[in-house]
Design brief:
Keywords: DNA-binding, Transcription, Transcription regulation
CATH class of the largest domain: Mainly Beta
CATH superfamily of the largest domain: Jelly Rolls
Radius of gyration: 19 Å
GO molecular function, one term: DNA-binding transcription factor activity
Domain HTH crp-type: 147-220
Order of helices and strands: HHEEEEEEHHHEEHHEEH
Shape: globular
Organism: Halanaerobium salsuginis
Helix content: 40-55%
InterPro entries: cNMP-bd_dom, cNMP-bd_dom_sf, Env_Response_Regulators, HTH_CRP, RmlC-like_jellyroll, WH-like_DNA-bd_sf, WH_DNA-bd_sf
Length: 230
Amino acid sequence: MEETKQCLKDLTVFQNLDHEELEMFCQNSYARIYEKEEVIFFENDSVKKLYLLVKGKVKLSMLSAEGKEKVLTILQEGDIFGELSLFDEDPHPLTAEVMETARLLVIPWHELEKMIIQKPSLAIKIIEALAKKTRLLTSQVRELVFQDAAGRLASLLSRLAEDFGRKIEDGTVIDLVLTHQEIANLIGSSRVTVTKLINRFIDEGLMTIKKRKIIILDFESLGERLQTVF
């Protein structure tokens, strides 16, 4: 219990909760470990639970009618997900898959509903999570409409550097290993196009790759790519 409570305190999303609110979360949730590539829930599943990512990384994706994957986002520690299916009878619109061993706190809907009735302020945290995803979707639509593949890749690299970046002597390393296909799924492009663009960015000195991790070398030049439009 104390370990769980400390984990919650360490996460930005729960730093403003008082002792009683933290106690409620601990008493009404349970911890679950998921291994790499394990699916937490599939698109069209009807399980109504709220998930809090305490440790690890999780990707949210959807499939087209032809079976093509579109990755919406990659979640990091402190992110909440599963909330999209809580407030109506519709199933999950996304699939949640673990990218590296993840520890989650899981709160069933019937427990969460009782908590919100007792502490309405808790609903604000869920609203914030919904707003974050709405902004992300809006940003992705803007990129797809106004930017070419190079601009979308530059935008993705900037976001990943902000979310998963770590300063090193040469620049900023993105502490996340992604295949070219996974990057293509994130920006709505093909693997071949992504490979060509990454090689071009490397040749131009914008980035490099060491031990399968991307290192951003020139943020200013990368930012100029964001202005690329059709």
